[in-house]
Amino acid sequence: MMRDAEMAEARKGGDNARGAEVDRRTLERCRQRDPIAFRVFVVRYERPLFALLSRMLGRGPHVQDLAQEAFIRAYGAFPRFDLDGAAKPSTWLLTIGTRLALDWAKSPQRAREADAVASADLPGTPDGRLDERRELGRLIERAAQELTAEQRAVLILADVHELSIPEIAEAVGVPEGTVKSRLSRAREHMRERLRPLRRP
After folding, report:
1. What residues in the chain have per-residue pLDDT under 50?
2. What is the pLDDT of residue 82?
């Protein structure tokens, strides 16, 4: 039976996208499709997964649907997950999420829905500094939405989730050289779009 301490530790780790990985014992139980162990896995990684999907596709109900689908696929694939392989559990799950997001974005109608959600204005606030931060967040979101889905994916995986170039190449299913090229273009685009915000 999963102890309360294990669930608490998973929640604590879930607050940080780059926190400690789920322990091997829990992963072994996930491979045996233990639902309580898998719940610990979900609690630990749901925030990084939601962050990835919402940054790639914008906020909206589609993020919840895709996150649920990613966890369903992970649950089904866990018996084949190599505990001694190079892939960390977080990287493995983010790979599943990235591929689902890229597939989802290929539909023109769905891409338009995501763009509409991402470009929607956030409510204003009388607090000037908070308002400035929100405006900055909106500008970053808009600049990111101008990237292709593939460029946005590698940028998020590299700069937010701190995956290595080989890990990103595995996640998106392209050669490392392609990842480097997309990442370079994405970073240059973001620098160019946010240049007016730089202060002397």
Report:
1. 1-17, 118-126, 200
2. 93
- Quote the pLDDT of residue 155: 92
In angstroms, what is the C-alpha Rg of the chain?
18
Report residue 182 as tokens: 């997309």
Return the pLDDT at 198: 56
- The separation between CA 181 and the C-alpha centre of its own chain, rounded to angstroms, equals 20
Give the Cα separation of 69 and 27 in Å (integer): 19
Start-end of H helices in the chain: 4-14, 24-31, 35-57, 61-77, 89-105, 108-118, 128-145, 149-159, 165-172, 176-194
What is the DSSP track for 166-177? HHHHHHHTS-HH
List of domains in the chain: 4-197 (1.10.1740.10)
Q: Is 123 left (phi over 0), alpha (psi -120 to 50) or beta?
A: beta
Cβ atoms < 10 Å from Cβ of 53: 26
What per-residue confidence (pLDDT) applies to 108?
A: 64
Nearest alpha carbon to residue 96 among 119, 73, 113, 126: 73
Task: Name the token pair of 61.
Answer: 């109900």
**Each residue of 106-131: b (16+ CB within 10 Å) or e?**
eeeeebebbbebbeeeeeeeeeeeee
Whether the pTM exceeds 0.70: the reply is: yes
